[in-house]
Structure formats: structure tokens, C-alpha cells
Amino acid sequence: MAEARQAVNFLPSLTSDRGEVELSGPVLQEIYLSGLRSWKRHFLRFWNDFLTGVFPATPLSWLFLFSAIQLAWFLQLDPSLGLMEKIKELLPDWGGQHHRLRGVLAAALFASCLWGALIFTLHVALRLLLSYHGWLFESHEAMSSPTKTWLALVRIFSGRHPVLFSYQRSLPRQPVPSVQDTVRKYLESVRPVLSDEDFDWTAVLAQEFLKLQASLLQWYLWLKSWWASNYVSDWWEEFVYLRSRNSLMVNSNYYMMDFLYVTPTPLQAARAGNAVHALLLYRHRLNRQEIPPNLLMGMRPLCSAQYEKIFNTTRVPGVQKDYIRHLQDSRHVAVFHQGRFFRVGTHSQNGLLSPRALEQQFQRILDDPSPACPHEEHLAALTAAPRGMWAQVRKSLKTRAAHALEAVEGAAFFVSLDAEPAGLTREDPAASLDAYAHALLAGRGHDRWFDKSFTLIVFSNGKLGLSLEHSWADCPITGHMWEFTLATECFQLGYSADGHCKGRPDPTLPQPQRLQWDLPEQIHSSISLALRGARTLSSNIDCHVFPFSHFGKSFIKRCHLSSDSFIQMALQLAHFRDRGHFCLTYESAMTRLYLEGRTETVRSCTREACNFVRAMEDKEKTDPQCLTLFRVAVEKHQALLKAAMCGQGVDRHLFALYIVSRFLHMQSPFLTQVHSEQWQLSTSQIPVQQMHLFDVHNYPDYVSSGGGFGPADDHGYGVSYIFMGDDMITFHISSKKSSTKTDSHRLGQHIEDALLDVASLFQAGRHLKRRFRGLGEEDSGHRHGFISSKTVDSKETTTSTTHNPFQ
């Protein structure tokens, strides 16, 4: 999502409070319980790791193999062909009475070795099977015989009941593409956006690169691909994210929204209690690997490595380079409210606190009248400052306020209880959604801890949202967690008739701990400077969110087209109408078909897409002619998308080649030019991965409205979209107010026009074509007609008494 801006801007034990401890019975009991929990946790992880390592076999398969060997031995058969006798000779001689024990041990050792060899063979066989990608380029209705055979073998070798990390040892490594193919594809991708003179010059640089430097750089990448788990992902994390010195806010973070039309309860503390409890339930399932692995199209496992750092993770600033700190466990969350920081425990001796108990703790914070200390209110603005500045200040902060800093950075995640409402309102639906997106992406610059893996934001009217740091994982991972959270807190946990979490409060719980910050004088000016910078950055971002309700995925499917390619071509048309020219377009695609794969770029602005756009703007072209060009453009985009998913894209290979050239101090004008390009249109689709958690037919309003990110270029746009059910698409658009070339609302109108114009090319969509293009009052009201189709008023959007499915 927000990675496009980073990609073009990258540069070549808890602290004790030292208080006295009374050695009393309850303290010893707590120490005992703490140790018991720790050993239990380690045992569960060891058992899960063991099960993952032997998958698709099971421990019972070893017992079966051992029993079969013992039975054969009893029947005077030797399946080991003499190996067990040699093993017995190597075992110590304990005397005649232990002769049978030596035989049993020899059989157990032989069974273990044979079992390990079989497991290794299964892993290798499955890895070879998963290296086949021909199925991705075929229609499900017309699979070839090789693909059907492959699918049957994958099902046989995949085993039963896999857990989250079961396939990690069987995933193939991401291949290094041919450098000649990469350069050819690159030149093809830039041809539509370069003049003849610029393209000829770029082609000359490319040929010089192929002749002089490519083979050496490629050799190093090939070597790394055999040695490392992934030839590009670790460098991508380090150089694109961790070495970036820019502010995380807007430049790197992204956001996820709540339900669009409903808010299950208007009580802020209740919503926070259920949401935090649901998130911690997800973490519990994650630790026990009870989350099933992601399967692309229901048959091809994806890499799950990014799930490891969802919780208990902080990006720690450094002067030259940040690093990601991940704890194995954390039993508290850090909470921010009205400029104050609190530490809220999430567990008691009986386990995870109930939602009602968590609501009680959050309500105590809301009711706490104590004011913020001087400069404490704006302290979090430092996490939105340039990384080098924040790293220097953090050294002083760690010396003077180590306990408070550790409570925040060591938390499971960060919670911000906002004092303002957010979400869709009937009075001004367009402005309210835009403000909602802006609050999630940037806030006020000092009310989010941008270093944490994610911040849960709970607004005063009960609306939710997430602000997410990008370096540790990509959007599909956090989207999976967010879908589980929304579904669990609404459909499983639910709320009582008065809007509170179900259950009873626990009066024995201690008060939330107010964190005390001893802020030295020398950092006061740094906080003020960081706050000014954060406010400037926040005020410059122009967010626009609009649900497109004229048609959705079901209509596109009836046209027998890819829904993502349909939207991408419409975006090309909309952007051309907005800016009057074509530009490099960044679309994020995942490479998790490979071990530790992350993303690849789909360059959506193709020659075929440009031909289609020109035809749409040519009044002499007929609809059938435009439709023919549209289908060609969609097919080209699909080919690029599938190639990117298979590791045959352009940008990650060129990025890795550039990093090698910098390590070798080798100047490459071609690679330098490649990485100086600006992405004026950065796009991403938010995937919906767990539709089984939502009943979109009976409760169509209970679907996440997706999220968004900042623009990749100061004069460009960031556009994300999500298919909400079958008949709605929600778009999130961002740009810079300081740019005279962009306007998020203007592009939004062009996107709506483009979608309707493209749909009118099809027989089924001709009734959707609007008969005028004006932006008068009637048309403007039509654009936001999605409000009229929903009962949006203060009663229904802020209470769950009558319409929520969990009552």
C-alpha cells in the first residue's frame, strides 16, 4: 500500500522501577504463576514448532512406523537390512538382562531416522510441486491435464489439518528472473510515458548496463537466492523501510476503517473493551497456530512469515537505521487519552480479562480527571518526526523515563481513545468520511504512537480504526487480523441491550497505571519542533473516501472479467481525464507464493491500456471498438499481475540489482535512472479474505470499508479500493493540498465517471450510463446517493439495540 513512496525514497529485559519488594505469600504465588505461565507458553510453542516441522506427517505416524518395525522384527523379518544390528552394536552393553531394551532402542532410532528421511522427502516433493505455476495462467473451467494431475498430487502431499506455519518448510524460494527479460519488460513499461527522445536514451543506458554490469550483479543475486530464504525481502525491509529517515506518518503508515454504516455501540469504553479482547483472542490463536494457512484459490498455500510480528512489535528509531523489536509476549496495552499515557494489564491470574473487565478499565481512564503533564500531551509527536531526530531524543528519554518508554514500546499494541467522534454522518456524508480517513491516517500528529506495529483508535462515538506501521508486514496480513476482530467483537462477543460489553465488571482489578514521564528540558524544544512538523504534514494531506454503489463485483463477474483489472483500467481512464497525460502507475501485488515473499509492482499503465483510454476519448470510436481494446488491456494487465505473483516482475529485481551495485561501489546510470522515477499514481486493492465470517446477505452493512494510504509523489495520488459485498466498491484517495496539480475529490468524480463509462460498453451496463457529465447540484447529490439507500441517522448508526445480528 504505502510502500510506493518508500520504494522511491529509500537511501543507498524490562526496566525495573527499583521499588522495594515485599517477600510475602501473594508475591511468591505471583512469581510461581508467572513461571508456570512462561513454561506453559514455551511448551506450547515447542509443540507447535514440532508439529509444523514434521507436517504433513504426524507424531502418530512415527508410532505406526515404530510398531510396524517391531512387528516385523517379532516375525523374524529385518526391514532395516542389517542396520538395526549395527545400531545395537554401537549402543552400550548393559548386560544380558537388557538385551531386549537394546533391541527396542535400536528399532526406535532406526524408525526415527527413517521417519525423518520420509518427512524430508515429503517436504522436497511438496516444494517441487509448489514450484509449478501453470495453474495460475489457466481458467478453472478449462484446466489442462498437467494442472489437474498437479492439483491431485498437491492435495495428496499437503496432508490434513495444516496449521498456520505448516507449509513454511515446503515453500519454494523466490527465483531470480533473467536480467535480459527484466530489462525488456522495463523498457516496455516506460514506453507509454516517455517521449521518443527520452525512450531512446533510456534504451541506450539499458544496453550499456546489459553489456558491462548486468552479468556480475546477476551472479551475486543468484548466489544470494541459494543462500538466503529470499533474495530480495530482507533488503526490501532494510533499505525501503528501516533506512528511510522520513517521518512515518503519511509517508509510510496506512489505515483500516470500521464498518461503514453501523456502529455496534455508542459507548467508547465498551467498543474498546470488545475490540481489545478480540485482538488478543486473535493473538492467542496466532500463538497456538490455530489460524489456518492462507490458500490462494483454495489450493496453493501462501507464506505466513509476516504473521509473527503482528503483536508485541515496535519499530525502534536509529540514527542511521531503525530496527524492529519483537517480544515473545506482552500482557498489557499502552493507552493514550487526553494527552496522558496509561498501562492497562490484559490478563489476570485466571487468564485474559473479559471484555466487560477491559471496558471497566478503559472507562476508568475516560473518567480520570487528572491533567496531562507539561509536554506529555505532545510527546508522541516525536514518533512522527524524522527518524534521526527521534533517535537522538529517544536516548535522553530512555535514560530519564525508561519505565514509561518500556511500557509503551513493550505493549502488545497501542490504543488511542480519541475525544472526538468520527464516521459517516447524515448531515454531511462526504466531509465526514473524508475527516474519518484523515483522523486514521494522521490524526492530530501527537495522538498516535507511529512506531508500534499498529494503533487501535477508538473514537468518542464508538467508531473504530487502525493506524499501521508498514515495515513489518503488508496489508493482507493486517487485513486478515482486522476482519477477525470486527467479526468477533460484533457477532461473537456482542453487546448488551444498554450498549455495554456482556458480563459483569470486576471491582477487584487495580486501577490502570498512569505512566510518568520525566522529560528533561533539552527535549522540550524537540517535542515542539516535532509537533509543528507533524501538524504541517497532517494539514497538507487531502483524503477523500467514497462508496461507489452503482455496481460491484457481481456485475464485473457477469462481464467475465477480472474485477481488479476492470478497476485498474478505469483508473487509467480517470487519471488521464484528471491530468491529461499518462504516468507510471504502481499497483501492489503479493509474492507470498514464495518463502518470505512480500510484494511486487504491477506497472498498470501499459501500451494496451493507453490505446483503450485514447479510444474512449475519441468521439469517432464506437462502443464495440472501445470494448475490444478494453478486453485486450485487461488481458495484458492480468498477464502482468500473474507474472508479478510468480516472481517475474520488474521492480524487485531491479531494486536488488541496484543494492548489489551500491555494495560493490559500482556506478550504473541505468539503475540510478530507474530508481529516480516517480509514481504519480499509486494503487492497491484491499483483499477480503474471510467472507465466511460475515453474513453479507442478511447483514450487508457489516462489511469492512477498507483503508488507505498517502500519495507516493508530492504531485500524485494514492488510491486504494475494496469490494464491499457484491454491489459496492469503496475508494480511498489521497493527495497533497500543496500540489496545484492534484485534487482528491476531482479524481474521485473522474473515477465514478470512468466506471460508469466503462460499464456502459457492456450490454448489461448500458442502463448505468449517465446522460450528462455536469457537476451541478443534482449530479452531486446523485453521487452521494448511497446515503439515501441506507437508514443513516444518529439512532441506527450509534446503537446496536434493534438491528445488530448478535443480539
Automatic annotation (TrEMBL):
Molecular function, one GO term: palmitoyl-(protein) hydrolase activity
GO biological process: carnitine metabolic process; fatty acid beta-oxidation; regulation of postsynaptic membrane neurotransmitter receptor levels
Keyword hit for 4Fe-4S: no
Transmembrane segments: 50-75, 104-130
Biased composition (Low complexity): 797-807
SUPFAM superfamilies (alphabetical): CoA-dependent acyltransferases
Any one cellular-component term (Gene Ontology): postsynapse
Disordered, as annotated region: 778-807
Pfam families attached to this UniProt entry: Carn_acyltransf, CPT_N
Enzyme class, spelled out: hydrolase
Subcellular location: Cell projection, Axon; Cell projection, Dendrite; Endoplasmic reticulum membrane
Keyword field: Acyltransferase, Cell projection, Endoplasmic reticulum, Fatty acid metabolism, Hydrolase, Lipid metabolism, Membrane, Transferase, Transmembrane, Transmembrane helix
Record InterPro entries: Carn_acyl_trans, CAT-like_dom_sf, Cho/carn_acyl_trans, Cho/carn_acyl_trans_2, CPT_N
Enzyme Commission code: 3.1.2.22
Carnitine O-palmitoyltransferase N-terminal domain boundaries: 1-47
Keyword Transcription regulation attached: no
Function: Palmitoyl thioesterase specifically expressed in the endoplasmic reticulum of neurons. Modulates the trafficking of the glutamate receptor, AMPAR, to plasma membrane through depalmitoylation of GRIA1. Also regulates AMPR trafficking through the regulation of SACM1L phosphatidylinositol-3-phosphatase activity by interaction in a malonyl-CoA dependent manner. Binds malonyl-CoA and couples malonyl-CoA to ceramide levels, necessary for proper spine maturation and contributing to systemic energy homeostasis and appetite control.
Family, per entry: Belongs to the carnitine/choline acetyltransferase family.
Name used for this protein in its record: Palmitoyl thioesterase CPT1C
Source organism per UniProt: Sciurus vulgaris (Eurasian red squirrel)
